[in-house]
From TrEMBL:
Localisation per UniProt entry: Chromosome, Centromere, Kinetochore; Nucleus
Ranges in a coiled coil: none
Record flagged with keyword Zinc: no
Lineage of origin: Eukaryota, Metazoa, Cnidaria, Anthozoa, Hexacorallia
The keyword Cell cycle appears for this protein: yes
GO terms classed as biological process: cell division; chromosome segregation
Spans traversing the lipid bilayer: none
Descriptive protein name: Polyamine-modulated factor 1-like isoform X2
Gene coding for it: LOC116307933
UniProt xrefs under Pfam families: Nnf1
GO CC annotation terms, alphabetical: MIS12/MIND type complex; nucleus
Key words of the record: Cell cycle, Cell division, Centromere, Chromosome, Kinetochore, Mitosis, Nucleus
Main location class: nucleus
Length: 210
């Protein structure tokens, strides 16, 4: 057996083993993952059918005429390698993107909502109606923000009222006392006018001289 044939046989065996494992795990997979694998298989079959043996014969007639046995062997190995590489890339994509988890999650979400009494939301075609719930949520958020601002302002006003009100009461009390004090000053001024200031000065000087 040539090295190419050995490698091809080894690769085919590896793919068959992987396919067997996938078949064993297929029973554990959810519906959408199974559908996805079937779609990938269908795409792969279409790709492989485009490179069927007859296409090689038509494109490389001279090579096949020179050595038909080697040509058929090489073309078959090439197709096997191509198929194996594509299957490997598909499996790698499923693993890297974690498609099994996302498809399983989607299946569970659909199953959980399948028994809901009302159908799932769908656009009605009227933007104003479709946006109502979204706008209501936005407006509710603004309303809550405004309530918070109003509460903050009310608390600040209450604090200012507690500080200013006693001061205002004190000012009002002083205003009530001003007429009495003014009256006392007026009476004192009248007494000073009636009193003989010159005589008071003489008595003061006499006291100083004594």
């Amino acid at each position: 057996m040539s090295l190419c044939n050995y490698l091809a046989a080894d690769k085919v065996a590896e793919v068959e083993t992987s396919a067997t494992q996938e078949e064993q795990e297929e029973g554990k997979e959810e519906k959408r993952m199974i559908i996805f694998r079937k779609i990938m298989d269908k795409c792969l079959n279409k790709i492989m059918s485009a490179g069927r043996h007859s296409q090689f014969k038509n494109c490389f007639k001279e090579l096949r005429t020179a050595n038909s046995g080697a040509f058929d062997s090489i073309s078959e190995q090439l197709m096997n390698h191509l198929k194996a590489n594509i299957e490997t890339e598909i499996s790698l994509m499923i693993k890297q993107e974690d498609l099994e988890y996302f498809f399983d999650t989607l299946d569970r979400a659909v199953e959980e909502n399948s028994s809901r009494p009302t159908p799932a939301w769908r656009p009605s075609g009227e933007p104003s109606t479709d946006c109502r719930d979204h706008l209501m949520a936005v407006k509710s958020t603004y309303r809550d923000q405004l309530k918070g601002m109003l509460e903050k302002i009310e608390n600040e006003n209450k604090s200012l009222e507690d500080v200013i009100l006693p001061q205002r009461e004190k000012v009002e009390e002083n205003q009530k006392m001003l007429p009495k004090k003014a009256e006392h000053l007026r009476e004192a001024a009248e007494l000073c006018e009636d009193f003989n200031m010159s005589r008071l000065q003489e008595q003061a000087m006499a006291l100083v001289n004594d």
